[in-house]
C-alpha cells in the first residue's frame, strides 16, 4: 500500500521497475485513487466551489472559463453550482458546497446581503467574490468599476451630441449592474448639465424581453429619447430590435450603447457599441486570488479592480 501511494503521488523514492509494475497493475485493475479518502488524510480536497448566477448566460460562462483554466494550472477541481440570483438558493448552495469540504469558494452573484456575509464568515475556508462585491468591501473581491463603466458609456453618447438619453437599468438593489451603473448614468448627465428625468429610466431584469417594454415606453414619450444606455448587452439587443420593429433606425433615430461585450454584441445588426468587461480575466484573477488565500500566500490587494474598455461599433454614430 505504501509503495502504491508513493507511485500515485509521484514520490521519486521508487525504483523504476517497481513503478512500472505498479502502473501495469493500476491499468489492469482500472484503479482510481479515492479522492475522499485522500482528502480525509490530508484535510484538503483540492476542490473549489463556484456559485454562478445563471449558467445559461454566456457572460458567466466566460468567467467560469477563466476560473477553470487557473484552477487547472494550480491542480484544483471545480464544482459549479447554479443559483439563479435567488438569495435563498444562493445561501443553500453556499452551505452545500461548504459541507462538501471544498478548500475555497468563489461567489458570483448580484446582491451580497448580511445573510451572505454571515455564511461566508462562518466558513472555515477562504471566499472570494467574483464580478461583484459587498457594500462595505469587507470581502476579498475581483470586479470592474461599474459606475465608471456606465459613466464612460453615457459620455460616449453625450460626445456624439445626445442630450435626451434614456436608461434601461438593472434592479437598483443590485449594487453592480443595477445601482452602480445607474449612478454612473446619473453622474454623467449631471456633469454635462443634463437633467435626470424619471420617465427616461426603466428597470429591467437583465433579459432581452424586459427591454422590449422599456423601449415601447420610451417611444411614447415627448420628447422621445435620441439615445438609450442599457445596463447589459442582452437588454441592449432587445432595445435595438424593438426600435427597428417600430420602423426606426439605429443609430440614425435612436443610438444604443451598453456594458458587457458579450459575443452577440458583434453579431447583432447594427453591431453594438459597448463597454467591455474583461470577463475571462475576472474569473482568472479571482481564482488566482483564491489560490493565494488557500495556500496562505501574502497578497497586497484584497479588492482588485480590473480595467474596462469602450468598444466602438455601429449602434452609436461616430462624432
Explained architecture:
- The chain folds into 3 domains: 32 residues, Orthogonal Bundle (434 Repressor (Amino-terminal Domain)); 130 residues, Rossmann fold, CATH 3.40.50.2300; 133 residues, Response regulator (Rossmann fold, 3-Layer(aba) Sandwich), CATH 3.40.50.2300.
- 43% of the residues lie in helices and 17% in strands.
- The chain has 11 helices and 12 strands.
- It has a 6-stranded parallel beta sheet, sandwiched between helices. Strands 7-6-8-9-10-12 form a 6-stranded mixed beta sheet, with helices on both faces.
- Helix 10 links the parallel strand 8 and strand 9.
- It starts with a helix and ends in an 8-residue tail after the last strand.
Which fold name is given in CATH as the topology of the largest domain?
Answer: Rossmann fold
Q: What is the CATH superfamily of the largest domain? A: Response regulator
Tell me which oligomeric state these chains represent: single chain
CA-to-CA gap between the ends? 73 Å
Alpha-carbon Rg, integer: 24 Å
Per CATH, the class of the largest domain reads Alpha Beta
Q: Ranges with pLDDT <50 over ≥5 residues?
A: none
How many domains? The number is 3
What is the count of DSSP helices, taking H or I runs of 4+ residues? 11
Shape: elongated
Number of DSSP-assigned strands: 12
Q: What is the strand arrangement across the widest sheet?
A: 2-1-3-4-5-11
User: SS-based structural class?
Assistant: alpha/beta
CATH architecture of the largest domain: 3-Layer(aba) Sandwich
Q: Strand-residue fraction?
A: 15-25%
Largest sheet features: 6 strands, parallel
Give the averaged pLDDT, no decimals: 90
Helix-strand topology string: HHHEHEHEHEEHEHEHEHEEHEE
Range of helix content: 40-55%
Amino acid at each position: 500500500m505504501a509503495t502504491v501511494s508513493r507511485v500515485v503521488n509521484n514520490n521519486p523514492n521508487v525504483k523504476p521497475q517497481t513503478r512500472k509494475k505498479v502502473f501495469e497493475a493500476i491499468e489492469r485493475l482500472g484503479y482510481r485513487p479515492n479522492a475522499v479518502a485522500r482528502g480525509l488524510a490530508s484535510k484538503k480536497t483540492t476542490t473549489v466551489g463556484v456559485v454562478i448566477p445563471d449558467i445559461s448566460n454566456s457572460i458567466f460562462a466566460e468567467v467560469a472559463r477563466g476560473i477553470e483554466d487557473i484552477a487547472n494550472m494550480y491542480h484544483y477541481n471545480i464544482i459549479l453550482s447554479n443559483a439563479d440570483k435567488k438569495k435563498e438558493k444562493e445561501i443553500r448552495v453556499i452551505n452545500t458546497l461548504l459541507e462538501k469540504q471544498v478548500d475555497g469558494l468563489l461567489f458570483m452573484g448580484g446582491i451580497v446581503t448580511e445573510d451572505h456575509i454571515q455564511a461566508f464568515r462562518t466558513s472555515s475556508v477562504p471566499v472570494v467574490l467574483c464580478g461583484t462585491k459587498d457594500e462595505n468591501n469587507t470581502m476579498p473581491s475581483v470586479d470592474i468599476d461599474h459606475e465608471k463603466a456606465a459613466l464612460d458609456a453615457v459620455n460616449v453618447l453625450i460626445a456624439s451630441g445626445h442630450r435626451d438619453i434614456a436608461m434601461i437599468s438593472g434592479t437598483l438593489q443590485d449594487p453592480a449592474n443595477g445601482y452602480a451603473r445607474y449612478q454612473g448614468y446619473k453622474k454623467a448627465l449631471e456633469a454635462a448639465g443634463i437633467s435626470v428625468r424619471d420617465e427616461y429610466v426603466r428597470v429591467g431584469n437583465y433579459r432581452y424581453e424586459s427591454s422590449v417594454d422599456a423601449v415601447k415606453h420610451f417611444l411614447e414619450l415627448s420628447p422621445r429619447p435620441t439615445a438609450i444606455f442599457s445596463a447589459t448587452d442582452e437588454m441592449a439587443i432587445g432595445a435595438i430590435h424593438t426600435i427597428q420593429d417600430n420602423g426606426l433606425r439605429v443609430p440614425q433615430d435612436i443610438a444604443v450603447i451598453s456594458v458587457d461585450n458579450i459575443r452577440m454584441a458583434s453579431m447583432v445588426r447594427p453591431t453594438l457599441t459597448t463597454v467591455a468587461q474583461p470577463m475571462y480575466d475576472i474569473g482568472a484573477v479571482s481564482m488566482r486570488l483564491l489560490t493565494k488565500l488557500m495556500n496562505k500566500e501574502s497578497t497586497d490587494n484584497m479588492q482588485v479592480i480590473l480595467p474596462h474598455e469602450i468598444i466602438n461599433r455601429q449602434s452609436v454614430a461616430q462624432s
